[in-house]
């Protein structure tokens, strides 16, 4: 009995410890944070730009007809070969039926012409034996030659009719197939130009497909500053609409200035792997001066910078798992309530600005 009582007490002790541990687990600490953005980079030239698609493809029917239905929506991702829209196929279907009937009729004519030709050829062969022996009147021989020539001509005509009818049927079937519109490329549906019930004309755009796997950010740069920008100038692009920051790739410079504003259009290529960047979005573009890197020389609130016991400075940063970490920094000049961080921070890092007093390494936070 004592043995069982001892086991029961041990089990209760284990349960009690587990519950105490659960109680001891701290809830995430609420803090205020700030994401380091290009606008916080000292001496960076910043402009407002517009996101553009890499390429736009206008997709249209090759013939005229009434649009029966459109199967895609604006903003929808489509793949090459996907069905986009259909026209009313009734007229094209009737044309195919008529063409097919004409082809069958032409084939029947060939069969009849072949039978007539075979008869005329057989009679010609028999008459030829008699003619060669001199026992056939000349008029009969001429009649046999004439009938064979007529049968040969009729057969050739019938065969030509089959060729023509076959071509007509192929054209009719192509016309029927062309009532279905397929995507020639992969991309995003930008805009629908027609709706069901409207008449589509040949080469009239039904939808536009935009290639946004890579986009271009268009910026107008004053002529006095265009000389300092080249194809490899580092850029940082901030799009507030989706709360994202990107690093720009190759830059394309325009060679002709606007006559009124004396600015040059440049386009910065940006890889858009997640397709979040959409044409028309407004972007803040920062050019890094003197070929400097994107990292460094950030201006952040001075109260965010803390000092360790050994005199080194750090800020609290938050990782993707919402855990706080001490990040060592080097600072420069102070201006107002902000201080320049010379080294240690990069664009898109999230720093804690308020509530850091209760933090320790690895503490979970909410913001």
Could you explain how this protein is built, in words?
With 367 residues, the chain is of the alpha+beta class. The protein has four domains: 27-37 and 296-366, conserved putative lor/sdh protein from methanococcus maripaludis s2 fold, CATH 2.40.420.20; 45-54 and 212-287, Beta Barrel (Elongation Factor Tu (Ef-tu), domain 3), CATH 2.40.30; 57-88 and 179-209, RNA polymerase II/Efflux pump adaptor protein, barrel-sandwich hybrid domain (OB fold (Dihydrolipoamide Acetyltransferase, E2P), Beta Barrel); 90-177, Orthogonal Bundle (Helix Hairpins). It has helices at 2-24, 90-132, 138-177, and strands spanning 29-30, 32-35, 45-52, 55-60, 65-70, 77-78, 83-87, 180-182, 187-192, 199-200, 205-211, 214-222, 235-239, 244-247, 251-253, 263-271, 282-287, 298-301, 306-307, 313-318, 324-328, 330-335, 338-343, 350-354, 365-366. The strands form six sheets. It has a seven-stranded antiparallel β-sheet, with no helix packed on it. Strands 2, 19, 20, 21 and 24 form a five-stranded antiparallel β-sheet that branches. It is rod-shaped, with a radius of gyration of 41 Å. Mean pLDDT is 86; it is low at 17-24 and 291-296.
């Amino acid at each position: 009995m004592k043995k069982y009582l001892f086991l029961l007490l041990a089990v209760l002790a284990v349960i009690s410890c587990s519950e105490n541990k659960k109680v001891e687990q701290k809830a995430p600490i609420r803090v205020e944070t700030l994401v380091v953005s290009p606008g916080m980079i000292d001496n960076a030239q910043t402009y407002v730009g517009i996101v553009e698609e890499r390429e736009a493809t206008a997709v249209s029917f090759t013939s005229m007809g009434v649009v029966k239905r459109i199967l895609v929506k604006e903003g929808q991702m489509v793949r090459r070969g996907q069905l986009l829209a259909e026209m009313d196929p009734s007229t094209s279907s009737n044309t195919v039926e008529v063409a097919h009937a004409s082809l069958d009729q032409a084939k029947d004519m060939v069969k009849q012409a072949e039978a007539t030709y075979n008869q005329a050829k057989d009679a010609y062969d028999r008459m030829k034996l008699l003619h060669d022996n001199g026992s056939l009147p000349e008029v009969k021989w001429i009649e046999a030659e004439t009938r064979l020539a007529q049968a040969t001509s009729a057969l050739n005509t019938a065969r030509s009719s089959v060729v023509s009818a076959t071509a007509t049927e192929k054209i009719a079937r192509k016309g029927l197939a062309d009532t279905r519109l397929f995507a020639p490329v992969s991309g995003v549906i930008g805009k629908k130009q027609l709706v069901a019930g409207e008449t589509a004309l040949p080469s009239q755009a039904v939808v536009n497909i935009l290639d946004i796997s890579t986009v271009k950010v268009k910026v107008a740069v004053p002529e006095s500053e265009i000389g300092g920008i080249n194809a490899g100038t580092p850029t940082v692009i901030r799009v507030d609409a989706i709360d994202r920051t990107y690093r720009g790739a190759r830059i394309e410079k325009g060679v002709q200035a606007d006559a009124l504003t004396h600015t040059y259009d440049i386009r910065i290529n940006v890889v858009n792997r997640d397709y979040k960047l959409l044409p028309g979005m407004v972007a803040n573009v920062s050019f890094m001066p003197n070929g400097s890197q994107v990292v460094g020389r950030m201006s952040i609130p001075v109260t965010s910078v803390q000092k360790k016991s050994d005199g080194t400075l750090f800020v609290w940063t938050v990782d993707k798992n919402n855990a706080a970490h001490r990040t060592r920094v080097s600072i420069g000049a102070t201006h107002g309530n902000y201080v320049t961080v010379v080294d240690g921070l990069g664009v898109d890092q999230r720093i804690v600005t308020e509530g850091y007093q209760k933090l320790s390494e690895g503490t979970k936070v909410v913001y």
